[in-house]
């Protein structure tokens, strides 16, 4: 229905459902990848040992880990727009 209505931007984030939203969208993205602009965000870190913890990370190692996770969960080789959900001002 979204495509029929002209919606072509799919925007999600690795924090939504702790990655479950990216997994949920994966079959739709796979079926319509050439019709969509795919965006997802990173930077909000969760700690499984502390459910209420939410940190902000923008360091290179975290970004690499986050994008690899998003690519895997979304089932794609590329993300059209990958951007920060929150900024850590201590990271240049």
* Element-by-element helix/strand order: EHEEEHE
SS elements, strand count: 5
Class from secondary-structure proportions: alpha/beta
Form type: elongated
Number of domains: 1
N- to C-terminal distance? 42 Å
Helix content: 25-40%
Low-confidence stretches: none
Question: Biggest sheet: strands side by side, in what order?
Answer: 1-2-5
What's the pLDDT, averaged over the residues?
92
Radius of gyration: 14 Å
* Estimated share of beta-strand residues: 25-35%
Main sheet: strands, sense, barrel: 3 strands, parallel
Q: Count helical runs.
A: 2
Describe the 3D structure:
The chain is an alpha/beta fold and 92 residues long. The protein has one domain. Helices cover 30% and strands 28% of the residues. It contains two helices and five strands; from the N terminus they run E-H-E-E-E-H-E. It has helices spanning 20-32, 60-74, and strands at 9-13, 37-42, 44-47, 50-56, 81-84. The strands form two sheets. The chain has a three-stranded parallel sheet, covered by helices on one side. The chain has a two-stranded antiparallel sheet with strand order 3-4. The longest helix is centred in the last third of the chain and has 15 residues, at 60-74.
Topology:
Elements: E1 9-13, H1 20-32, E2 37-42, E3 44-47, E4 50-56, H2 60-74, E5 81-84
Parallel strand pairs: 1-2, 2-5
Antiparallel strand pairs: 3-4
């Amino acid at each position: 229905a979204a495509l029929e209505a002209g919606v072509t931007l799919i925007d999600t984030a690795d924090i939504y459902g702790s990655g479950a939203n990216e997994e949920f969208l994966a079959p739709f993205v796979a079926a319509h990848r050439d019709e969509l602009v795919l965006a997802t965000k990173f930077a909000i870190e969760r700690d499984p040992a502390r459910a209420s913890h939410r940190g902000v990370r923008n360091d290179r190692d975290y970004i690499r880990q986050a994008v690899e996770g998003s690519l895997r969960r979304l089932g794609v080789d590329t993300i059209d727009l990958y951007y920060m959900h929150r900024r850590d001002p201590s990271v240049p």
